[in-house]
Fold this sequence. Notes:
With 474 residues, chain A is α/β, with parallel strands linked by helices. Chain A has 15 helices and 11 strands. Chain A has a domain at 2-224 and 413-469: Amidase signature (AS) enzymes (Alpha-Beta Complex). In chain A, strands 1-3-2-4-6-5-10-11-9-7-8 form an 11-stranded mixed sheet, sandwiched between helices. The mean pLDDT of chain A is 95. In chain B, 34% of the residues lie in helices and 4% in strands. At the A-B interface, helix 8, helix 9, helix 10, helix 11 and helix 12 of A face helix 1 and helix 2 of B.
Amino acid sequence: MQQAADYWRGIFSQxxxxxxxxxxxxxxxxxxxxxxxxxxxxxxxxxxxxxxxxGLPFGVKDxxxxxxxxxxxxxxxxxxFVSPYTATAVQRLVDRGARVAGKTNLDEFGMGSxxxxxxxxxxxxxxxxxxxxxxxxxxSAAAVAAGMVPFALGSDTGGSIRQPASFCGVYxxxxxxxxxxxxxxxxYASSLEVIGVAARSAQLLEDVFAIIRGQDEADHSSLAYPxxxxxxxxxxxxxGVLGGQLGLEPAVAEGYRKTTQALQEAGYQxxxxxxxxxxxxxxxYYTIATAEASANLARFNGVRYxxxxxxxxxxxxxMRTARDQGFGDEVKLRVLLGTYVLRSGFQDQYYxxxxxxxxAIRNDFARVFTGADLLLMPVFPVAPFLQGEGGLDPFQQxxxxxxxxxxxxxxxxALAFPSGVExxxxxxxxxxxxxxxxxxLFQVTRRWEEEHPVARPPDYPGFPAWLxxxxxxx
Amino acid sequence: MDVSELYITAELAGIELSQDEIPHLQxxxxxxxxxxxxxxxxxxxxxxxxxxxxxxxxxxRPDSVRRExxxxxxxxxxxxxxxxxxxxxxxL
Lengths: 474, 92
């Protein structure tokens, strides 16, 4: 959106406002802790500016590499690590004139739904600081919602962009698997994850996606993105919704009902669809994700980089102790689970069975998309929950990933959008499309954005109003 | 899952578990493994396993020499170096 881009370029056109902006980020972050590193980079020399993003600062989740900056992954085990190179998705934005503003907080290695699993302390939700911003890309979503950056990159393995976007009241895109290069993304579950975007503007989200997508020779799982003329021309007419008992909290159920009604009033035909495999999604997702994680995280052993004990009896003990001291509870749990489901004798029962059900889940979506152009689903069954003990326990958080992780298992794109505010907290819904049909998602969100402007959190009216309101101005 | 199974798994996972974290991890792992057993309710006859949702074939690059090399930058992250060797603590 040109307007948003011009607003941001306006800030940086004058040294005084740029200084105020930097003060805003620092002061706001004392309460929110959205960033692990704030380090606003100058626009790159030789960039070929794209008016959509040129001059705009953006946040980068701290499991995505930016040369010369830490890559903590929210983990103690990465202590002291400085990234020797830059992720392709980040580089593509920098090449178009965008500026890295810093690295955002996350659940350790992307494992969690609250950002409370970060070794460096939790991020607060800008709507209510006693509540979680969601996770694992909670820092990225909170930074965008508080107006600290117009957009931020995150990664989505099982909902890690969409759920925090929903909790913070912004847009969040999980692209088609392979649409964005994963080069420079620290691997958690390689067959599921993809780099995506959180933004306050649906148009900016679309513009950023257009820049970061496309094949990359450094990532062999990245796929050539079809040119517009290669896609069947299509106007979204029918949107599927799930019937039956979905186990939603009242505020979310109300949000789902209202959004369905609003889309119907906007002229879309609503059709009820079924996803019979939905009840297995969370079990399948956690079997596959933890199995892949147990292999991917084997590289963190304190030998070549990161933290390690001062003393060990033998090399194996050095590595085992480095991992015990360096990994948090949730990471240990998932590595143990993944190791267990891959153990000789258990593979058929867990991992292989999960992969077979994954085929059934893909078939379910393929069938749904013969009767509907898009599918509307809740993002998360509950509204942003309280930080710490008063919130959802880790097991409940996992089971609640069923609506988001389905898209990762099927490899299809999904876009979370702010559908409204219930009881002072944002509620998001998501639209899902067939692979490579992000264009259909944008068709709907472009209209949605026009008719439903994104609400700002009351305490974060945007810069520089925040500085004035907080009495922290120049 | 009994404690001996947890130890075998931790050994395979390369994680040294301290005594005080065992009860909690044992409960958490058991809870999830029990949850996974839900998958046995479904008939998977005739379903091929999906390893990657959209990948159909391996993509290979030409087998050619390249001069770019980030090894110096990578070595800078090592906790301790002797020339171009990574030093680990003394082990017996």
